[in-house]
Amino acid sequence: MSQVLISTLCGLLVGALFSFLKLPAPAPPNLAGVMGVVGVYLGLVLSKSLF
User: Fold this and answer.
1) Taking the CB of residue 18, how many other CB atoms lie within 10 A of it?
2) Which positions, given as ranges, span the membrane (predicted)?
3) pLDDT digits (tens, 9 = 90+) for 3-47
4) pTM (predicted TM-score)
5) Whole-angstrom Cα distance, residue 2 to residue 20?
6) Most CB atoms within 10 A, among 18, 20, 44, 50?
């Protein structure tokens, strides 16, 4: 659980830094893009458990 908290805090810090520097976000700009990343991760996890 602590890895999730640390990752979330690091993500918030990076997001704030990119906003401060007026750079585009280093992530997909919409929900569809985010869900694509989630799908890739879930595919990886499922394939490891099935094979």
Assistant:
1) 14
2) 29-47
3) 889 888 988 898 899 999 999 877 777 888 889 888 998 999 899
4) 0.59
5) 27
6) 18
Residue span of the structural domain in which 19 resides: 1-50
Query: 32 is written with which tokens?
Result: 């569809």
Place of tokens 């929900």: 31
Q: Give the integer Cα–Cα distance in Å for 19 and 5.
A: 21
Task: Compute the distance between CA of residue 49 and CA of residue 27 in angstroms, rounded to an integer.
Answer: 27
Q: How many CB atoms lie within 10 A of CB 12?
A: 10
Handedness of CA 3, 6, 8, 11 (dihedral sign): negative
SS3 of residue 29 by DSSP = coil
